[in-house]
Amino acid sequence: MEFQDLMSQVQQQAEDAILAAQDLDTLEELRVKYLGRNGILRQQYKQIGSLPEEDRPLAGQALNKASNSLKKLFEGRKSALSEQAEQHKLQAEAIDVTLPGRTPQVGHQHPLLATLDEMIEIFLGLGFVVAEGPEVEDYYHSFEALNYPEYHPAMDEQDTFYVSDDVLLRSQTSTVQIRTMAKQKPPVRIIAPGRCYRRDTVDATHCHTFYQLEGLLVDEDITFADLKGTLEIFAHSMYGERCHVRFRPDFFPFTEPSAEIALTCTLCGGEGCRICSDSGYLEVGGSGQVDPNVLAGVGYDTEKYTGYAFGVGVERFAMLRHGIDDIRLFYSGDMRFLEQF
Amino acid sequence: MRVPYSWLMEYLKADLEPQELAQVLTMGGLEVEEIIDFRSEDGEFADTVLVTSVTSNRGDLLSMTGTARHAAALLGAEWKMPEIDMGLLGDPVSGQTEAANDQMRIELANPKACPRYSGLVMDELTVAESPDWLAYRLEAAGMRPLANLVDCTNYVMLELGQPLHGFDYNLLQDGHIIVRSATEGEQMLTLDQQWRTLGEQDLLIADAAGPAAIAGIMGGADTEMTWDTTKVLLESAHFDATTIRKTSLRIGLSSEANYRFERIVDPQGTLRALARVAGLLLETCGGTIVGEAVDVCAPDLTPLRVPLRVEKCNKILGTQIPAQQMQAHLTALGFEVEADGPDKFQVTVPGFRPDVEREIDLVEEVAIVHGYENIPSTVPGKLTQSGQLTRNQKLERRARQALRAAGLNETISYSMISRRDLDRMGYPQDAPERNMLPLASPVSEEETHMRTTLLPSLLEAAEHNQRQRVSSVRLYEIANVFYPRGQDELPEERLHAASLIMGPYWSSTWNLPEDTQSPDFYIIKGIVEQLIAALGVEGVSYQAAEHPSLHPGQCAAVILDDKQIGVIGELSREVQAEYDLEEPAYLFELELEPLMQQASQYAEYEHLPRYPAALRDIAVVLDDTPENTAGALGQVVMEAGGEYLSEVAVFDVFEDAEKLGEGKKQLAFNLTFRTPEGTLTDEQVDDLVAAIVSHLRKKLGAELRS
Hints:
The complex is a heterodimer. Chain A has 12 helices and 9 strands. Chain A is α+β, with helices and mostly antiparallel strands.
């Protein structure tokens, strides 16, 4: 057989074998067999010397060409098989992505305190500083200084927990008004968040423990219109521009004029529903211009200074914000509840 | 108060539906809580009833005419009083403390508590059921019709707001009425057949024989009007609100009458009410009026005059209401307004508005009629400070964040607990936590005292969660606890942080070995360390300690400046059993104030080291005695390591009698050496380690483990 023919035959066999190889090990074996140090092609080179002089260049060329072509084919096949192997490996590593993730354990903020914090942030933005006072209070700061006549039916609404005649659990954060003004000359611009207590029997909508946020601004020329404007900004920040704040006359001994604060019912948007007793509004607190008796009691000049005060219940806001329908949950310590927020 | 619409509209000239009227009243300070479609028990009469909620300063709105007057002012409409024939009273005999005619003698022994008492005697009355129109109105207003005599007095009270009382004249001794204070321990049987014991602070209507009524609250059974009554003495009086309220609260008795007296009834209205009821009785019971009325009236009931400055009023409200309009608003409410210069009024306050005493009260009246919704909204101009939290509030937020980052959920629990909670937790009788502030009138047996520790609340939460089959409980609370000081002194309020973990602590997940999930002492301690680090407090140490609720071998005191500020530990077996907890629970409670005092507001930057550190590990074996703690060992190592030793960290604790010998333990540390001056050579570090090892041997008898 002619050298060239033999070459073609070898090349053909090699090509078939390379293309048939299904894994990298087989391929490597073939490479050694054909292109290795003692491979078939190397042996063919050795045979060139035994050919007639004139045939050698051609045979050499043919051999080089075959060698190059096979090398290229090997490389191609190798990269194809490598990729295939990589694919198999990745496939083997595939997991069930629908199994639950491993979440780092992070604690949750209590919805009541989270709501309170949000309310506080709004008033911080309006220049109010946060003041505090004791939860167990005396009669003076709770009632006398707030212009409650000693035997007045208004006391019924407070339903106070007493420790003794003079010591009691505060029934509203308004006590902080007096404590702050006693220490500070106007201007006074404070909010006072905190725990309050009233002798309510606990059910889905009542609790003897509750949180309030009190606000007080005393300065020259503070008007009832300013009170309205401030609480409107607050309501809009909490619930958006469409929330309307309704002010209507009410009575609190420490404010005059006094106003009840109600907001558009967030559930029905003001249409009227079960939650708002068809009124379209939800009462959230009380407010008014600080009564001159209160200002005079802390030594302020009532001709020079006027002010407003307001107090809103935090539970209501938290319940509306999260759709919570039972006030007792706030104090339950129930993990199933706490982890939802 | 229940206001039947058709009754009200008898006095109010306005054309509007009950719902519209309710809206106007609500926005005008008289909230209509409910609108009821009323039908009488016999089904013959229907009406719409507005249920109003009258604020405690507005006694004048506890009547149909008062409601009509207020509604008229809000609507700008007309209203009228019912027709009353004052002539029925004849020419009343009057006096300042005493007056009499041939039927009755009225004596005011305590004019401060009863400044006015008007009486009238009627005879030949026929007691029967009330006519339908009267009975239906009472029923619609929520009062049960009884008989014409008593129904008429109730009707006039509802119509005019003046409570009336009728005595059976023949049961009164000599028609002699003495309004006096009770004597200490004086007793009487009231209409409801209850014996009442009275004292000097209580006001009585008496005759010569004894008490006939508790003034302004309830009549006596002895002088009660009955179906056989033919002759009555009618009382229309004015009583001091405080006196009535004190008695009502003290004896726990409340009626429609005292409800009104406590909210102050118009002292000018006694005779009018008397004439009105006389007219109604003539109409419904027949009979005759015997003689003229007797009216005993203290002299100081002249109406108050209050100035109102127009500019001041507008300045308080932030409005520009013209003077004329202010005048109109006040006049509509029944005030008499006279100009006093161009910018000022003198306002005479009618007797039915005793709540109005000052200029600011008039400002409110102007605002109410003007309509709160018509007052503009503005933003207070002068900003003199930026809003901010106090230092402690910021630190509290930081503490809350650190505890949440440790995987704990924030909880809130009641501030009140009971002695039983401390019993359950095993506190001995002399524990300082037992000295709690007691509530005078608690709402339940479980909440009788202000808590001195947050732990009982957390244990209760653990109990609750276990009952709900919640396996992993991780809670913290930051709240005040209360320590009593002297009698009538406010207690000390201390801010505490406390936590409880029970069940799997790490992320609840699949295919993780269970033992890596369980909490232990070191996890709860780690949380405390993380909290303290977050507050930037240094120098806190931990010592083995005891606590009545905690495992005696797994309890540490948290020490700052040689003072214990808290406790960490595993719940003792006894308390765990008491609360029926299936899993061990780990708790801590800390006082936050001492930590806050030393907290750093900002972390101070430390320059990053320029030269690499040299790291070495050593393991030593020593006797397993209570003194040979990891803490003690660490301290000895730090002493020996000097300034070049920057860190010591335990990485292994090993106890094995076979390998180490009985009563021995092995502790292994990572040591980190560095100096800002350069890189330490191996020889330098070897010398340092050798010094440490020799020091450990000398101080603790610890041997290097090769």
